Amino acid sequence: MAEAPRSFGEFWPHYLREHRDPRTRGIHYLGTTLGVLLLLGFLAGGDWRLLLAAPIAGYAFAWFAHAVIERNRPATFTHPLWSFYGDVYMLWCWATGRLAGELDRARPA
Q: Which among 23, 107, 14 is positioned nearest to 69, based on CA atoms?
């Protein structure tokens, strides 16, 4: 990004361009889902190890995909909160069939 985004709306297209490869997105979905399930397990049972494991599992998958497939630097390092929201929002868009339109809008002109 040339300039730092001032809102998630400005960040979102950049985020999607950093996740061009469907394999990267798939690995992100796996990590995000596992992280959410671990968090829910913590909330249901109170085992603090699940709370610690949730972000580790989620980010391990994502960082692997960026290193091996996209060969770029994860947005987590520069915009951690927007990146986390982007992971969850991308999963939501995919699950609800909205991701293709979002990817089309994010393509550079």
A: 23
Q: Identify the pLDDT of residue 2.
A: 62
Domain ranges of the chain: 17-106
CB contact at 8 A, 34 and 93: no
- HSE (side-chain half, CA atoms, 13 Å) at 1: 18
Cα–Cα separations (whole angstroms), residue 24 to 2, 16, 41, 59: 23, 11, 26, 12
Residue with tokens 């596992």, as numbered in its chain: 34
Mean pLDDT confidence for 89-101:
97
Question: CB of 15 within 8 A of CB of 21?
Answer: no
Reported as a single tens digit per residue, the pLDDT across 55-69 is 999 999 999 999 999
